[in-house]
Amino acid sequence: MNERDSEMMLAQLQRAGHTIATNEKSADVVILNTCSVREQAEIKAIGKAGYLTRMKRTNPNFIIGIVGCMAENLGESIFQRNSAIDFVVGPQRLHELVEVIENGGKNLRIGESKSTKSDQDFSYRLKKFNGTAFVSIMEGCNMRCSYCIVPKTRGKERCRPVDEIVSEVEFLAKNCVKEVTLLGQIVNKYIGMETVTGGGKATFVQLLERIHEISGVERIRYMSPHPRYFSDDLISAHRNLPKLCPAIHLPVQSGSNRVLKSMGRTYGREKIFEIVEKLRTAVPEIGISTDIIVGYPGETEEEFLETVSLFDAVRFNMAFIFKYSPRAGTRSAELADDVPEDEKERRNKVLLERVGEVSLLYNQRFVGKITDVLVEGHAKRGKNIMFGWTPNHHKVLFSATENDIGKIIHVKIDGFATTVLLGTIVD
Ligand code: SF4
Questions:
Q1: CA of 225 to the centre of ligand 1 (A)
Q2: Ligand 1 atom index nearest CA of 149
Q3: Choice from 153, 183, 185 to test ligand 1 binding pocket (greatest atom count within 8 A of CB)
Q4: Separation of CA 310 and ligand 1 centre (Å)
Q5: Which residue's CA is minimally distant from atom 4 of ligand 1?
Q6: Domain ranges of the chain
Q7: What's this model's pTM, rounded to 2 decimal places?
Q8: What is the CATH number of domain 370-426?
Q9: Ordered per-residue pLDDT tens for the chain, 427 residues
C-alpha cells in the first residue's frame, strides 16, 4: 500500500511541475513515507529524518516532510521531536501534498480528508513499468484487531467504485502491465460493486471476474484476505479463473483459539483448516503463506504449541513471523507484555525453522520444470542476473538482459535455496 501511495505522490508532484531528483542530496524536497505497524519502523524513520534535516545547513530552502501511517499516528508530536521537519501528512490526506509543499511553513494534515478531491487519479501510472502494478481497491479497516494500529492510521473502510478500478486496470494493461495485485486491508471484504451481476457471488469475486476479462492482463493477485471473509466462491474463483495466480497470503496470526479471540480475529483455527483444505482441493499446487505473531500477551507454551501444530498441519511455504511488541493506542497495549523477550525469540526461531524446512521441500518440487516468470528487474547478485516471479509467487534468479524486464518468459528451474529458485531461460 505504501509503495502504491509513493507512486501516487510522485505523480501528483510531477503533474504540478516538479521533477524527481536522482538522489536525496540533490533534492529540494524529501518526503519520507512511513509505516507504523512496528515500533522499529517508526524509530528508523525518525532517525532518517534527523539525518536529512542536516541538509538545511547547506540548503536553507530544503524541505522535509513525513507522510503515511507514522504521520497519522504521531501527529504534531513529530514537530516536537524534530523542529526542522516542515510537514506531516497522514495517509488519508496525501492528495493535499502539492498544496502543502507550495504553502510553505509548518503544515499538519492528519485525520479524514475534508476535501472532496479524489486521490484516485491513476494517471500516475505513466512511469516506467516493470510489467507489474499495485491497484488499491479499498482502504482503511473497520475491524479492531487488538494489536493493530491500522484502523487508527488509515481510517474507516472505503471501497473504490468498480468501474474506476476496471478503468485503471484497462489503462495499465494498455501500458504493458501484465500482472496486477489488488490491494486492501481486507481485500476480500470489498463491497464497492455498484452493479451486482447476480449469482449471489461475493462482490470481490465479481470484481475479479471483471478484471479477468481485461485483455492484456495475464496475472491477477490480491493482498491481503481475511480468513473470516474467505468465501467458497473465492475458492471456486481460484479453480475457474486461470489468470488468478495460485498463491495466497492468508494472515493467520496464531494457532490458538484463545489467543485469536483475545486478538479479536473473529475466526478459529478450524476455519483455517477448512479454507486450506478447500483451496488445496481446488488448486493442488497453490502456494500458501501467512503472518504469525509469537509472544502475544498471555500466550502460554501450550498455546504456542497449537500454532506449531497448525504450522505442521497446513505446511505454509512462506511465513512472516513477528515477535509481539505493543503499539501505543491499540487495545493489546493495555495487556501485560508478559512473554519474556528470549522466549519470544525462541518461539520465533522454532517457527522459522519449521517454515524453512517446508519451503525447501516445496521449492524442490519445481526443479526440472519449466515455469512462466514475469521479469521484474536486476537481482543483487550480479550484473546480468535478473529476478522475476512465478505464478506461485516464487522468486527466480536467472541470467537475462534489460530487454526482458516486463516480459513473461519461460524458465527451466535448475536449483533452489530456501527463498529463491535458480533457473535458465528456455525458448
Ligand atoms: S484486519 Fe485487523 S490486522 Fe488487518 S488491518 Fe484490520 S485491524 Fe489491522
A1: 10
A2: 8
A3: 185
A4: 21
A5: 185
A6: 2-109, 122-364, 370-426
A7: 0.89
A8: 2.40.50.140
A9: 888 888 888 888 888 899 989 888 889 999 999 988 888 888 899 999 999 988 888 888 899 999 999 999 899 999 998 989 999 999 888 888 998 998 877 888 888 765 544 445 555 555 556 799 999 999 899 999 999 999 988 889 989 999 999 999 999 999 889 999 999 999 999 987 555 555 678 899 999 999 999 999 999 999 999 999 999 999 999 999 999 999 999 999 999 999 999 999 999 999 999 999 999 999 999 999 999 999 999 999 999 999 999 999 999 999 999 999 999 889 999 999 999 999 999 999 999 999 999 999 888 989 999 999 999 989 887 778 999 999 999 999 999 988 899 999 999 999 988 789 999 999 7
**365 grid coordinates:** 518440487
Q: What dotted CATH number matches 2-109?
A: 3.40.50.12160
Calculated CA dihedral for residues 348, 349, 350, 356, nearest 10 degrees:
110
CATH number of 122-364: 3.80.30.20
Report the separation in Å between the CA atom of 141 and the middle of ligand 1, taken as the mean of its atom positions: 6
Give nearest CA residue, ligand 1 atom 1.
143
Q: What share of the chain is helix, strand, coil (3-state, %, to 5)?
A: 40, 20, 40
Q: Is 253 left (phi over 0), alpha (psi -120 to 50) or beta?
A: left
Note the residue count of the chain.
Answer: 427
Residue nearest to atom 8 of ligand 1 (CA): 148
